[in-house]
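Both lines are given unchanged directly below:

***
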Amino acid sequence: MYVSYGLHPQSAGHIDVKANADFLENLLQQHKLHAIGEAGFDYFNEEFRAQAATQEEMFNIQLALAAQYNMPLVIHCRKANEKLFEYARQFKKLPAVLFHSFMGMPNEARSLLDRGINAYFSFGKQVLNNNKKVIACVRELPDSVLLTETDAPWQFLKGEKCTHPSEIKKVFDTFCQIRNQPSHELENSLKDNFLDLFSLKQ
């Protein structure tokens, strides 16, 4: 198991930013983390948008720590894709960036890659509910930048109450169908991407 800790944008306005940032840095100093995040921006509703300034403060703290400690950064971004391009130059300085549950179009993902970011894009059960943007990304992006996820227990389909981590198998099988790619081939690519993202290759 590899551990990440972050100040989630949805927690803006509900947490002590300094205390949590200090806790994060303490974990980094003790070499207890493999990544920072989820960090990012969430403008999904009025409540979240009202905390935009605090979200940005939290994000800048985590971005600086990721650069200082040479750590991958896990990005949560909802209804705020313009912020990804605003920070693209800083992302380029990080060892890797994972755009978790990416909700952009394939051309947006390619644009981030073209800016020199060591970027990875993960997708979960949206591939099972005919989300056209997600399916297009899974189909069109190179397998060298893709990862599967569940975001368990939160990312569930209509009529469900939660998602279990074991449902990663459903996501993976659907990836293979969308890409018309043999399972062993995609499995190897995803494993390599995971190892690269977290600098785990020997």
User: Anything to note?
Assistant: The mean pLDDT is 96.
